[in-house]
Each structure stands twice: as C-alpha cells, then as structure tokens.
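tool_log.txt
---
The assistant was asked to compare two proteins side by side. It first ran the structure predictor on the initial sequence, then on the second. Raw inputs and outputs are pasted verbatim so the downstream comparison step can read them without reformatting.
(1)
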Amino acid sequence: QLQLVESGGGLVQPGGSLRLSCAASGDTLRYYDIGWFRQAPGKEHEGVSCISTGGTTNYADSVKGRFTISRDNAKNAVILQMSSLKPEDTAVYYCLEVPECYYHVPNPNYGTGRWGKGTQVTVSS
C-alpha cells in the first residue's frame, strides 16, 4: 500500500523559501495524482496544489506564482517548492493521493480520516 511522509518544514522569515517533500513507499508515486494541503491553527484544511500522473498542475490563487509542485521520481517523491513566503502561509502542510487533478486544487474533504502527521511551516519575522 502507498505510504506518504511529509518533510522539509521549518521556520523562515517573510520572503524566504522552503522545499517540502512528500516521500512515498510501498508503491510508485508517479502512478498517483498527488495533492498538497495545509491547515492553519484554528482553520479548516485547504487545498494548495496538485499534480496529476500526466503532469497537469494546479494551484490555489493564494500561492500561484510563488509555489511550484513537481515530481522527483528518483526519490519516489513529490516536491512543493515554496518561495516569497508570507506569514499567512503558516500552517501544517500535508500531502495525499487524490482522485483527480484537473482544473482546480483538490477538495480538502477528501482528506477526512486520511491526514498524516504533516510538516509545520512557520513564516515569521
């Protein structure tokens, strides 16, 4: 079975960058559509980005132009490169397999009962 582990979070100043990794085991990740989600304290989960098996990518308007999702197949991973970070990006970030990644970011409702431990991103001066 596919198992995913998020890593790469940390504390950065506004305008800084972080590279998050969604590393897979148990199966080949390139066969799955993968989504990144985040949850800020006291807030509900929101979809951030996704990448399909065919290479289609989608981003939330709030991160478009600042975040880039890609695959690192040599590491069996999906990467979320985050730049120009803002305090409002502060959240726990999660990755999940998703049923589709077409024209919109994935629906966070799909993550119900499926969230892992995530990785904490804190953007603060």
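(2)
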Amino acid sequence: QVQLVESGGGLVQPGGSLRLSCAAAGSGVARIRTWCYYRRAPGKGREFVAGINRGGATDYGDSMKDRVTISRDNANNMVYLQNDALKPDEPADYFCNGREALREYWGRGTQVAVSS
C-alpha cells in the first residue's frame, strides 16, 4: 500500500507562486514508477498538470507547462510541484498520483486559491 499526502496549498495573489509537496509512505513506495500531479478546477474535470518518472524524465500538460516544474526527492519520498505565475481563473484542488505497474494511488488533494 501507498499513502500520499499533499500540502502547500493556500491563497496566493495573481501572478504569485506556490510550491506543492506530496509525501509518500508505505511498503509500496519503491514500486512507484511515475509520479504525477493533477488538478480539478471548480465545475471541471480532472486535468493532468505534470509527471515525472523513475528516471527523472518529465512531462507537462499543455495548459500550465510554461509555469510549473515537477521534481522529486527520492531519498525522502517527496514530490514537488512549483507553480508560478498563477492566474485569477486558476483556483483548483491539486492531487498527487503515484503509479506502479498494476495500481495507482491518489492523495486527498490540496486547495489552491488565487485572489487579490
């Protein structure tokens, strides 16, 4: 099993930045091949934001690819999403996702609000 806990959300002004963290724990962490962040804006579906695989290769969704950076700390089982230049129309819940060969795991999410 794997438990994922997101943190770092909060209120940020338009144009501001946040660094989201995902802490992974459990006996299955070593089997995780790919870590991803998704977001879900109010009234919308879940959207892929960024992913990073075991080799360190990254992938980004189109809507935020110029403003987000995903990284990880393997030694501490942490995954980070640096989120810059947030826009007023981008409040959302952000979710951490971990995938192994046959299963995937989700955190409960952390909320990001953008307002002046």
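---
observation on (2): The radius of gyration is 14 Å. The first strand starts at residue 3 and ends at 7.
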